[in-house]
Specification:
Elements: E1 3-8, H1 12-25, E2 30-37, H2 59-84, E3 88-94, H3 97-108, E4 112-117, H4 122-128, H5 131-138, E5 143-147
Parallel strand pairs: 1-2, 1-4, 2-3, 4-5
Helix pairs in contact: 3-5
Amino acid sequence: MATVLLTTDGSDLASAAMTKGVELLGRAHRFVAVSVVPPAFVPAAAIGPMESHGLVIGPALEDAIEAEDRVESTFDIARLTEILEVEADVLVETGEPGAVICEVAARIGADVVVVGSHGHGWLQRVLIGSVSNHVLHHAPCPVLVMRLEDTQAD
């Protein structure tokens, strides 16, 4: 029995990717499902014309936004495990998704990480980065990248 780390951002595309990954790997494993909430940063309006970026409004507002995102992520994971019909340990972490997924994989001793890929072209990967690409190159274990196209984007 392997330890399988399932990753989700709560999207339907991520759910479809995890479904396909579980179908390929089978259900006779220990599953850990993780969702990563990016840190909240709320910019304020610039005070003067020479100021190129705003200030953070306040830690209390950031904490409230992160807490709300964590609750939403917990519901997303519950929905995912229901769709997959598997029992999974649930983790909701805060940070940069690629790095956090790799850290969690190392911490839990994952045998494989299942991650979805949106199938974006090279220009989008250069401009916005790719969580799946980061995990593929930095995870401490094999990575199963489930590439599914978003047919609803057309």
